[in-house]
Design goal:
mainly alpha, about 80% helix, elongated
Length: about 210
């Protein structure tokens, strides 16, 4: 589902599962649409329908974990993320999402391990890089932040992603480190106006 028009999506997907009550993808997407509308009970129902059709379908398992995470039910969120990881070890999102649960439980070491595991598979996995940066900021681990920024600058070729990392750093009083990312963003895209504005704000100490 990419249009964001979730109510229309629900209408059409509901028709699809009425016609074919064994339609795995329709049930999974129907659950996801309800999730985006914060209709969590309906989301859980349809996602569980998808899992009952195919217990190995990791997107539905991951989405179930996300629903429970949003509800604050970390035990069930952890359960479904672990199932998704077990059944789809190359699917990186559940591992990142499980890390978010562990952060909320102050299990920072476990969260860091999950993010680093993802990055060992895909060094440019944006969600894991962003989660790891947020974790290091939360723990005020400046040396780790500097190390991670060096890694990002070396491997990342997406100016917009660099901007997001830099903005997060600047918002958390790490403006000096953000400069490195902004400079690289401009190197990749010389017309990147936002990067120039952020650099001007940092050097001018503007809010």
């Amino acid at each position: 589902i990419s249009t964001g028009n979730y109510k229309k999506a629900i209408f059409h997907l509901s028709n699809a599962v009425t016609i074919d009550n064994n339609n795995l993808i329709a049930y999974s997407n129907l659950g996801t649409a309800h999730f985006h509308l914060e209709q969590f009970d309906q989301a859980i129902h349809y996602l569980k329908c998808a899992v009952s059709i195919n217990p190995q379908y990791t997107p539905a398992l991951n989405s179930l974990g996300l629903v429970y995470l949003e509800k604050g039910d970390y035990a069930n969120g952890e359960k479904y993320f672990l199932e998704a990881i077990d059944r789809g070890p190359k699917f990186l999102e559940p591992r990142n999402n499980l890390g978010i649960i562990y952060e909320k439980q102050n299990k920072y070491y476990h969260a860091e391990t999950l993010y680093l595991d993802n990055l060992s598979v895909n060094p440019n996995h944006y969600q894991s890089l962003y989660s790891l940066l947020g974790l290091y900021i939360r723990e005020n681990r400046k040396e780790k932040i500097v190390e991670l920024v060096r890694r990002i600058v070396t491997t990342n070729r997406d100016a917009e992603a660099l901007l997001r990392f830099a903005s997060t750093l600047a918002e958390n009083n790490y403006s000096e480190i953000a400069i490195t990312l902004l400079t690289q963003a401009i190197h990749l895209d010389s017309q990147c106006k936002t990067a120039f504005v952020l650099l001007g704000n940092i050097y001018g100490n503007y809010q």
